[in-house]
Every structure is written in structure tokens, then in C-alpha cells.
Amino acid sequence: xxxxxxxxVRKSFGMVDVIKGxxxxxxxxxxxxxVGPSGCGKSTLLRLISGLEDITSGEMLFDGKLVNALAPSKxxxxxxxxxYALYPHMTVYENMAFGLTLEKGKGKEEIQRRVEKAAxxxxxxxxxxxxxxxxxxxxxxxxxxxxxxxxxxxxxxxxEPLSNLDAALRVATRIEIAKLHESMDHVTxxxxxxxxxxxxxxxxxxxxxxDGLVEQVGTPMELYERPDSIFVAGFxxxxxxxxxxxxxxxxxxxxxxxxxxxxxxxxxxxxxxxxVIHTENLGADSYVYLDMGQEEPVVVRLDGAVSYQxxxxxxxxxxxxxxxxxxxxxxxxx
Amino acid sequence: xxxxxxxxxxxxxxxxxKSELMQQRIRAARLxxxxxxxxxxxxAGWPLLRSIYFSFTDASLSNLDEAQWIGFxxxxxxxxxxxxxxxxxxxxxxxxxxxAVWNTVRFAFVSVLFEAVLGMMVAxxxxxxxxxxxxxxxxxxxxxxxxxxxxxxxxxWMLNDQFGILNDLGMRLGLLSQKVAWTAxxxxxxxxxxxxDIWKTTPFMALLILAGLQMIPKxxxxxAEIDGVHPVKQFFKITLPLVRPxxxxxxxxxxxxxxxxxxxxxxxxxxxxxxxxxSVLARENLFDFDKFAYxxxxxxxxxxxIAVLTILYIWLGQVKFDGGDR
Lengths: 334, 326
Known about the structure:
CATH architecture of the largest domain in chain A: 3-Layer(aba) Sandwich
Distance between the termini of chain B: 26 Å
CATH superfamily of the largest domain in chain A: P-loop containing nucleotide triphosphate hydrolases
Strand order of the largest sheet of chain A: 6-7-8-3-9-10
Oligomer: heterodimer
Mean pLDDT of chain B: 88
CATH class of the largest domain in chain A: Alpha Beta
Strand content of chain A: 25-35%
Strand order of the largest sheet of chain B: 1-2
Structural class of chain A: alpha+beta
Strand content of chain B: under 5%
Mean pLDDT of chain A: 92
Structural class of chain B: mainly alpha
Radius of gyration of chain B: 26 Å
Shape of chain A: globular
Number of helices of chain A: 9
Number of domains of chain B: 2
CATH architecture of the largest domain in chain B: Orthogonal Bundle
CATH class of the largest domain in chain B: Mainly Alpha
Number of domains of chain A: 2
Order of helices and strands of chain A: EEEHEEEHHHEHEHEEHHEHEEEEEEE
Low-confidence stretches of chain B: 1-11
Helix content of chain B: 55-70%
Largest interface: A-B, 34 and 24 residues
Radius of gyration of chain A: 23 Å
CATH topology of the largest domain in chain B: MetI-like fold
């Protein structure tokens, strides 16, 4: 178990500043998700924590101890890579045991016990004799997670572990990782993803990164309900929050009005009017895309199936208590 | 979990009858192979068969067409003397031939060993990221790009007993007490040839190994970093096993090349029994001594020896030409 603290951490590659001064505290046993668009520096930040990259300036503390110059293997971490990074010439068992065999004072039985325990947790015991190439993508990812577990780490790092899996497997593995977190509640986990659904479903707290800086840190519901900027408001939640500018926003006393699709109602006395461009029926709910003279179509999310025709004019109203108001700088007005 | 069902659903039973597309592909493949098979038959197959044929005759350069079949006479024949003792003759009991075989094998083994080790080191350096890597990669190929005759002449001059730079440096630095005739002295001739060959072909080895190194994904070294694997152990436990298929193929290329070494020795140390290899000896008999049939027998044996060594190497080294574990 370890608490991780970053104080004004910066990272540059040559002339390019990738991390531009990050202050962040990850609590003991917490599941922290770094999320942001590609190029925001989230993977770099994870690699700084792992020690695979050196930080350019600032301080990194594990349990209050400075680890700036500490080798990755001495930080008590384990990492799961997007590409699995299994040793292709070793069997699953050897992959999982390799790190342990190098540690001093680990007997064969001890190693075997730990590998088998991890294999049982992930249901990969029947594959222990196989080579990685004989496994499917999902199985390989579970081996990579198993290898991390056998290290008995204080900090578990995940670098986009699900991006190479297909949609069905992604959901299944996501649930496994959530269960893993529950069963290893003494382990601090940091998870990088660009997928806000993964962030929302897995995280205790989410750290939204943008352009090398922390935009907001908070629980999923905090980010969903009280975003600190237009960027966070637009990034968290699916479908994306609608942003409405101009006269319609002025009436609510803001430069930009944000309202989520699920917080709008189609009704006869609606205050706004829009033309239906397109409807998507997803079964449980439906998205109606309306042209309201804004830059982007406004999405209204409705329960169940609907049957609006394109070109039909609808009246909608936002749920007033759910309106997010932003000033011209993109900051919320509260 | 869903993994198993996914894996099993992709395993579709192979149809017994080949589809039209498959048959079309096979036809096309055969068509593309024909020109190469014809070329090989003309430039490799025919001369090989002719050499083997001549090795069983009494052919000489002047009467190739009237050569008479004499069976295994060139390889081994015996005459019973009046005293009752048997006198063996032929290639298989020729000390010059076995000296050449030993020279060739020794040369091939030592040169390929050094080239593999040095080539691996060069490849590891070139695989690291540093400024000017492109230029260094090109520069290191220069010895390989120089024609053998040119580099043999160049080294011959550097190794010259009177005016060579190596003797001069050695004397000035006090490493040599007297000038050495590197290429002419029996004790040093083989070393001289080895030095030049290693200098010349290490870049080739390095390039083949480098190609293998670049196939290894970078991320597994990061995983090893987190596992706390020492760099030396990383090399022996990760790099070496993964580059092994490429290394084995590179070694076999070089081994085939080294076993038929001719030009370098012919230019650098002509007529030295200490360095005479099978190819040099065969050429000498074929054209200089007008023992065409005897030289053909040597060529045939050379072919058989290389074939046997190569098959042994592939079999014992479990060489896979499909890229191995990946």
C-alpha cells in the first residue's frame, strides 16, 4: 500500500514540454484513473510514476519518500501494458515467475504458490504451459495482469490495458479489473485510458488531463455533476454534453450553456425549437439530433424507442436545475 | 469468460477440396517459379552434374570430350606391389587434400565464431539510439562493400614485411622486435587471413543480427525493467533467445560462404600450404596442374562436405527459417 504524491512534476522531451507542472495526490488503496484526449500526457505521467521515464523537475513521493531517482523495480510497482509486453519465448508460467526468480530468497515452492494463486484468480491455470502466441488477446491480457499480481505490488499501474481488445472482451475484462480492485483493496491502482466509460465505471477518483496539466480531480459523479470547466463537461459523459451559445445562453446569464442530452425533455411548451436531423434507436434509449442553429447538433436522450421523422420540428426544454452555466473563459458560474 | 468461445469459433474445419481460388494460387506460384528453376538448372545444376561426372573420368583440360569413365579411381585406388604390400592412391589418401580440408574447417569455424560475437556487439550498439546512428550504420558497411580483391590487396600492403604499416607501428611502439612477414610465414598466414576476413564480414553479420534485434518489441524490455532484470541478464534471458533465429540464419549464410573461401586466400597468401583451402586446391588442380578429373573430384567432395556440415548445423541447431518463436 502506498500513497503517491506529485509536486510540480514536469517532463520535457528535448524542446517539447509534455507534462507542465502536475500536482497530484493519489491516496492509499485508491483506484485513480487518468483520462484525457490523446496527446494530453496521461501515459507519460504514468511512465513517470513507474520510473520508466525520469522526471525533468519536481518531486515524486511514495509514502512520503522521494523516489525521483529510484529504479522501477525498487518502487514496489507492477505495470500492465497496452501491448501486454509478454516475453514471447517463455510459457505463461515462466512469464509470471520470471520477476520472482530474480528476487533473492524466494524458494521454488513460494514462487509456484504465488503464480498458481494469481492464475486461479484470473482463471488462466489451464494455460500455464502455453506460449503467449498460443493465447487469444484477452487471455494474454489476463496473463499480463497475472504477472503483475505475482509481484505483490504496492502500486498497480495500467496503461490502456483494454484498448487492444474487442468490445465484448473489453466489458468483460473491465469487470474483472473492478473485481480485482475489490479483492486487492490494499493496493493503490492507477489506470490510464482515453475512454471515459472505463474511467466512470472503474475509478474511485478520476484525474482529467489536458495538454500536460491537471484539469480536474474528483469522483466520477463530481466530474459528471460539477465539472470545473467546459473541457471536463464535454469530456465526461456520453453522449457528449450539448453546448449552446448566443441568445439562448444569454437568457440564462452565461456565455455558454451546457446541458446533457438526458436532462432535456421534448414537450409542447418547450422553450427551444429544433428540426430533427437524425434519430438513433439503441433499444433501451434513443438519441435525437436536433438542428437548433448551433455549431453542432443538439442531442436529446430519451428512454425507449422513438419514431420522429427527419425534418420534423420539435420543442424542447432543459431541466433548469441541471443546466451548467459557463463564462466566456469556459469556467463554471455557480 | 467469453475468450474461450471466441477462440473456438475462429477454428473452422479446413475444407478437403481445394477451392478454385486456392488452385489458381498454386498454378500462379508454379508459373512464377519456372524461370528461376530453369536459371538454377542452367547455371548451378548442369555444372554441378558435369563436375560430378568428370570426377569419375580421366579428363584433362585438353581432352574433355574424350574423357574415359574410370569409376572411383580419382577418389581411391590401390595397386598391389610385388612385395605383397598394398599401395593406396587417390584423393581420399592425399595429405595435401586433408590439409586443405582442415585449413578450410578451421578457417570457417574461427572466422564465423569471431564474426558472430563481434557482429552481435556491433548490432547491439547500432540498435541503441544515439545521434548520428544513420551515418554510423552506413559507415560500418564499408568493409563489406569493398570488393574482396581490393581489400585483400589493401591488407596485403598493410601486412607487407618491409613497407607495411603494421610492422612499422609494431616496431615503433616496441611491440615487435623484428619485422614479421605476416602473409608469408606459415605460423602467421592463417591469422592474417582470419583478420582480414573478420574485418570484412563482421558488418554483414552485424546487419543481419540488427534486423533480428529490431524485430524484438521494445515494451518487453520495459516489462523487464519493472521486473528488475539486470541488463546482462536481459541480454542472455531475453535478447539472445529472441534474436536466436536470426542469428542462426546469419551464421549459416556465413558458414556456407566461409567453407568455400577462395578469393581472399588466392590474393593474400598464394601458394601457402598453411592457408590453402579446398577451393584453392581444387582450382589449382583443375587449371594449373591440368588434373581436371582430380580437381573435379575435389570439387565434388567439397560440395558433399559443405552439404553435410550444413545439414548437421540445421539439424543440431534446430534452425527454423520461419522466424522462430514470434
